[in-house]
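Example 3.2
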Amino acid sequence: MAESSTAAAAARVPQALCASAALEEKGRAVLFDVLHYREPARAFALRFEGRVVAYLNRCAHVPTELDWQPGEFLDSGREFILCSIHGAAYEPRSGRCLAGPCGNGRLTVIEVEERDGAVWWLPTRDTRPAPGPTEVTPVQP
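Structure, written as tokens:
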């Protein structure tokens, strides 16, 4: 039992993502690589209403990446995360589907914390750091 709790604690070690300044309010997201259920996947973090949120870059309707340009997830009014393929709209603070073919779905949350001028993400049993150097893409305007 102690071994599994040690593994669980190791899985929760915060992973450096980016400097806080890299995430402008309702701006471009920072993309990063993860393993979700042991499969390579992309995730993203963005700042919305002063808070950093992060999600797996996967529509709840069909597992396709959401961004319409690298790092661009918000609609033209900068109010909703919008799936570029299906038009599904998600509430940025919770990831809950508000409109479109995603029904009652929600985006997969990646827990983040912001401290000392940096943003960190917290792995879980299901979402872990990708092996090797993690590619973080702070998308330039």
